[in-house]
Amino acid sequence: MVEKKKTVHFNIIKNDPLDGHKGYNPGVLNLENMTPIFIDVAEQEAFIDIGAMHAKSKVEKGLRFVPNIEELPNPKWYWLVWVTVERNENGPFYYGVTACDLATDREARRGYKIFPDHVNKMDKSLKGHFIVDHMDEPSKKTLAEFLKKQEGGLWENSSDELKKKLGVE
Asked: Which Pfam families match (predicted)?
């Protein structure tokens, strides 16, 4: 008889899972206000792909990820930027913005990313950090332009720290 492996399921919770109740499951994360944005480094195009929340974005699908970049003969580089939005008295604003790198090689059907880094940057975004210093300047500019175009006053309500880190003052 073959033993079935136990799998851990991760659920994205909508709304406040602890609303009116302080006990069971206090460590649940609410990812409702987070959006993954990809930046194609070569094309300097930014786009949203919600599939990245489960590592099933258009960029990632169909690839086997390897821990060594040398296994990709022709890497195409992307930034995966985790953007968290919160609301204050002025309205919605960009609360956390963190970026991690990712490379793909469609021909070799391989991809490269450091999984723990992606998880940690997602967590940092949820906690209101801005980690974009390691991005190249053109990609920072592309990200800033993309964030500015979003409706609802998000950019205008966001901190000067974010704008400074993205080179916009």
From this structure: YwhD
The DSSP letter of residue 158 is S
Query: Residue 101 forms beta bridges with which residues?
Result: 79
Beta carbons within 8 Å of 148's beta carbon, 6+ residues apart: 155, 168
What is the model's pTM?
0.83
Question: In angstroms, rounded to a whole number, what is the distance separating the alpha carbons of residues 150 and 56?
Answer: 24
7 token code pair: 């799998």
For residue 42, what are the contacts with CB-CB under 8 A and spacing of at least 6? 76, 77
Distance from C-alpha of 47 to C-alpha of 144, rounded to nearest angstrom = 12
b/e map of 35-72 (b: 16 or more CB within 10 Å)?
A: bbbbbbbeeeebeebeebbebebebbeebebbeeeeeb
